[in-house]
Design a protein that fits this description.
Length: 310
């Protein structure tokens, strides 16, 4: 057997990183033909850059844009409109001189108010025998006007639940984040069945920093359920730091809202922020480019080999 060469079988080689350390750990000796690839310095640099790019991508880098300033509504303005049966009384006149009922006159002036109060978020409550939310606070005044136009006399019942309207407004204001809170209360009658008396509801509103501006619409000399309780409206305004008004005509309503512009001017709050753009794809792209470069260099300039001592 000395003169016959040993049988050898060709097998696929296994490339193992840190080959010398592996031999030390296993206390083994390299077989015949074992080779050690010598890494070039450029290869080490490329691998280090690939690792660094992966770490940067995992950190999710972001690009901060230029500061942007936006203006948002600075006041929540809730408008409560009486839809009781007495609002159909035609004691107002339109611009062309034709008679109009009280609700039509109120809608006309509120359209003008919505167009001029660009800095306010508007809400709408309608009340009769009960109070209902017609529109939550919104900066979309166009939609708010559409909801206002859909209101009809007696759609909330024939009576006047004045205190309930204030109570509903308080609940809505609690859910709002704005500090400047104003309630415009347009009514032509006295309270005829609220669960909470109007003045008591106003006291609760005062604790929530809500100012109430009651506007009495119609003839103050009316009697019965259609009578306007001016004393109650005045007390509600006094308790909350607002002011009560009387409007006997369309001109009076316009004058009232012009006065409100001076008492509660438009408020705009500026908000600054810097847009952020994710750019983690840049280091990932760098990893891909470095890998392709590493493979290309390996093909063009194969790594030198050194035999391992037996």
């Amino acid at each position: 057997m000395r003169f016959i060469p040993a049988y050898r079988e060709r097998r696929d080689a296994v490339q193992v990183p840190f080959f010398t350390r592996l031999l030390e750990a296993t206390e083994s000796r390299p077989q015949r033909g074992a080779m050690l690839l010598i890494r070039r310095r450029g290869q080490k640099v490329l691998i280090a850059l690939m690792w660094l790019s992966l770490v940067i991508a995992a950190a999710k880098p972001q690009w901060l844009g230029e500061p942007i300033e936006q203006q948002k509504a600075g006041r929540d303005l809730m408008i409560a409109v009486d839809l009781s049966g007495s609002m159909e009384t035609e004691d107002f006149s339109q611009a062309d001189g034709k008679p109009a009922d009280r609700l039509t006159a109120v809608k006309t002036v509120l359209r003008q108010l919505a167009n001029e109060r660009a800095g306010d978020r508007l809400g709408l409550i309608v009340f009769g025998s009960s109070a209902y939310l017609q529109s939550p606070f919104t900066e979309d005044h166009r939609t708010w006007l559409l909801l206002l136009n859909e209101t009809r006399i007696r759609m909330a019942g024939p009576s006047t639940a004045l205190g309930d309207a204030v109570g509903l407004a308080i609940k809505l204001f609690k859910d709002a984040e704005t500090e400047h809170r104003v309630l415009l209360l347009l009514t032509d009658g006295n309270d005829t069945g609220s669960l909470v008396p109007p003045v008591d509801a106003a006291r609760v509103a005062a604790t929530e920093d809500i100012r109430i501006y009651p506007i009495a619409v119609g003839d103050p000399t009316a009697v019965g359920e259609e009578a306007i309780d001016l004393d109650t409206l005045a007390r509600m305004a006094e308790v909350t730091g607002g002011q009560a008004f009387e409007a006997l005509s369309s001109e009076d309503l316009i004058a009232v809202f012009k006065l409100l512009d001076t008492l509660e001017p438009n408020i705009f709050e500026s908000v600054k922020f810097r847009p952020r753009t994710d750019i983690h794809w840049l280091p990932l792209g760098a990893v891909l480019m470095l890998y392709l470069l590493l493979r290309t260099l390996a093909r063009l300039w194969p790594l030198p080999k050194a035999k391992m001592p037996q």
